[in-house]
Amino acid sequence: MMPASPRVHVVDDDPAMRDAVAFLLETAGFTVKVYDGAEPVLAALPELTTGCILSDIRMPGLDGLALLRRLRAGGHALPVIMMTGQGDVPLAVEAMKLGACDFIEKPFDDEVLLQAVNSALERGGPAEAEDPTLREFVRRVGTLSERERQVLDHLVAGGTSKEIGRTLDISPRTVEIYRAKLMTKTQAGNLSELVRWAVLAGLARG
After folding, report:
1. Per-residue pLDDT tens digits for 61-87
2. Are 126 and 197 in contact (CB under 8 A)?
3. Where are the domains of the chain?
4. 3-state class (DSSP) for residue 62
5. In whole angstroms, what is the distance from residue 87 CA to residue 53 CA?
6. Of 28, 133, 159, 198, whose CB count within 10 A is highest?
7. Which CATH fold would you assign to the domain 7-123?
8. Is the pLDDT assigned to residue 2 strictly greater than 70?
9. What is the CATH architecture of 132-200?
């Protein structure tokens, strides 16, 4: 069970984004503590015993990946959600491999953020291989055609439709068609969800 007012630690060097996210979370009933970078979070580690961390992935000095590495190296198991910019899929994949439980792409809808935070707090960390949802995802991936699986691999590696089309010698429009088909077959709601499950299932390359 989650505490009555779960704590979310928001880490972002952009004051406007930090304040906007904090306001949204507080309005939704969360207790929020904000940090303007990774260093203040590391300094406050002894106090970070509950809740989850919501961190931007690109920050001056120590970035979100460095923060995540430090946390895990120190044995801190708080769930971490990464906020990424568009086109940061390779960074998001790396974050997931390091133990982030989720990532969301900016700009994001309020509901997407709240759902990610609630899921992180309920789960408490990365999904396990025994997770029935993960097993079902792997089963669905097995139903993809060879070309759909190729597009999936390139999507998870961070390729754009143009890049994937160039590599596979098909048009970007055809890539989009395969992408729509594989999203339907895997029942992934969006690219973030597709990447998250692919990483957890060990399907991400690199």
Report:
1. 999 999 999 998 888 888 999 998 876
2. no
3. 7-123, 132-200
4. coil
5. 22
6. 198
7. Rossmann fold (3.40.50)
8. no
9. Orthogonal Bundle (1.10)
